[in-house]
Automatic annotation (TrEMBL):
Organism: Bradyrhizobium huanghuaihaiense
Cofactor requirements of the protein: Ca(2+)
Annotated CDD domains: ARS_like (cd16142)
Keyword Metal-binding among UniProt keywords: yes
Statement: the UniProt record of this protein carries the keyword Cell cycle: no
Keywords assigned by UniProt, alphabetized: Calcium, Hydrolase, Metal-binding, Signal
Descriptive protein name: Arylsulfatase
Region of interest called Disordered, as start-end residue ranges on this chain: 474-493
Family named by the database record: Belongs to the sulfatase family.
Pfam family, one: Sulfatase
Signal peptide limits: 1-24
GO molecular function: arylsulfatase activity; metal ion binding
Domain Sulfatase N-terminal span(s) in chain numbering: 30-364
Length: 493
């Protein structure tokens, strides 16, 4: 399959993809496990140059990489909500009104019109489960069990809210704030941990506080393992989406791991995450389904930027909430024994939206044809049938700001921002970086390479043309959402 020169997939191309996907449905459906670390930077894992350099070896994840394929140029969106939206819908978050972390006051998350991976695979007979942070809607009708998942345990928003009910000097290291001491739930309600089954009302089971933050990954893993064993025993194909809590701030280990490395909380959390990953891999092996299970381990974002929980961006520059490589590049490992070549490493560009389209093909599902799908099918690339990715580049948004464009080994910056706390600066002229010779993005080589602007502008033009035909959903859009023509209101699978 030739390289795609377009980032947005036109309607005709989507139809073509559905034609190629359909025959896979006749084959045995593999199980799919997607483990998603939270804000795990490029330089954290041993296999990416971290591990013991970050205070804790990561033997289980490193071994997983040796058993499958490791990407050096896997790209995500700049914030948690946009990345998770892109992963589950195959659409850049700017299209779905999910382009920034919600603050409150308006409907947040995905409209029910969006179609998730869980819905596609559920429609093909898969059991679907999720455990962990959703961050794509805190109203009950937008929670995971109303977006294709059969079961869910986790939080609707994010883990830094664990500090809210812990703002009590008698219980926590964090000081009280304002002119009154302690937490006042009447001012802002704390976030709850939920348990839900499809068709039932989500149930609040606990308040997310610092103590529960410490135990989240143990609980997430335990429930995911039980789901894997249960469905392996029944012979039903399954899709397990496992977004871990680590290493999102506050980066606090389970008490069983506290002090284990001797290198502080952050290293203890890295050790725990490696252990939890191993528990899930062990469950797959013990169930006898290793060869029938596609496993992905990835991160949703670049590293944390807030003291004392800063992460590591490896050889790159910047943190999440920017368009720097330290924000965009994240770890990615895929294993499928006997199908994905073991030990393969690639610097070809893959974007998180591609996972949606690829998993659709794996599960024998058809991608939607009534909306633009930005993800491209990367299965043949992952299987080693071709050396090149089916993607050459993509637009990089930070919130609703088109900040950069990546194309091959080039980066064209339109807005310059090095860290999430830096002020974005609109550039008078684009800044062109050769990522092969300048991993820290320090030298503008636009004077010698102004030609790079041409493919970058083409990517922008195609995206803007698609916006005219399919207007993006506005942030805070309530349900029911009906797209303007030519989009059509879909029937949920």
């Amino acid at each position: 399959m030739p390289k795609s020169k377009s980032i947005w997939v036109p309607l005709a191309s989507v139809v073509a993809i559905t034609i190629t996907i359909a025959p896979a449905a006749a084959q045995q459906k593999p199980n799919i496990v997607v483990m998603l670390a939270d804000n795990l930077g490029y330089g954290e894992l041993g296999v990416y140059g971290g591990g013991i350099l970050r205070g804790a070896p990561t033997p289980r994840i490193d071994a997983l990489a040796s058993e499958g394929m490791r990407l050096l140029n896997f790209n995500v969106e700049a914030q948690c909500t946009p990345s998770r939206s892109a992963l589950l819908t195959g659409r850049f978050a700017i299209r779905s009104g999910t382009y920034e972390v919600p603050i409150g006051g308006t409907p947040d998350g995905l409209t029910q019109w969006e179609i998730t991976t869980a819905e596609l695979l559920s429609g093909r007979g898969y059991a679907t489960g999720m455990w962990g942070k959703w961050h794509l809607g805190s109203a009950e009708d937008r929670m995971p069990t109303n977006q294709g998942f059969d079961e869910w345990y986790g939080i609707p928003r994010t883990y830094d809210e664990a500090m809210w009910p812990s703002l009590d000097e008698t219980k926590s290291m964090w000081p009280s704030v304002g002119n009154r001491q302690g937490w006042n739930a009447k001012v802002v309600h704390p976030e709850h941990i939920y348990e839900a089954r499809k068709g039932d009302q989500p149930r609040q089971v606990a308040v997310l506080d610092v103590d529960h933050r410490r135990t989240m990954d143990a609980e997430i893993t335990s429930r995911a393992v039980e789901f894997i064993k249960r469905n392996a025993s029944s012979g039903k194909p399954f899709y397990a989406y496992v977004p871990f809590a680590h290493v999102h701030m506050p980066t606090l280990p389970n008490l069983e791991f506290a002090g284990r490395t001797g290198n502080g909380d952050w290293a203890d959390c890295l050790a725990e995450m490696d252990y939890r990953t191993g528990q899930i891999l062990d469950a797959i092996k013990q169930a006898g389904i290793e060869n029938d299970t596609l496993v992905i381990f990835a991160s949703d974002n670049g590293p944390e930027a807030t003291n004392p929980w800063e992460g590591d961006n490896g050889p790159w520059r910047g943190t999440y909430f920017t368009a720097m490589e330290g924000s965009l590049r994240a770890p990615f490992i895929i294993r499928w024994p006997g199908k994905v070549p073991a030990g393969r490493i690639s610097n070809e560009i893959v974007h998180i939206v591609d996972i949606f389209t690829t998993l659709a093909r794996v599960g024998g599902a058809e991608v939607p044809t009534d909306r633009p799908i930005d993800g491209v099918d990367q299965l043949d690339f992952f299987l080693g049938k071709q050396e090149a990715s089916n993607r050459e580049g993509f637009p990089a948004y930070v919130a609703d700001r088109l900040s950069a464009v990546k194309w091959r080994n080039w980066k064209v910056h339109l807005i310059w921002q090095e860290t999430m706390y830096a002020t974005p600066q609109k550039l008078a002229l684009p800044r062109i970086i050769n990522l092969l010779t300048d991993r820290k993005e320090e030298r503008d080589v636009g004077a010698q390479n102004s030609w790079v602007a041409d493919p970058a502008v083409r990517i922008i033009g195609e995206l803007e043309a698609s916006f005219k035909r399919y207007p993006p959903i506005k942030l805070g859009t309530p349900d029911p959402y009906t797209p303007p023509e030519p989009g059509l209101m879909r029937t949920r699978p």
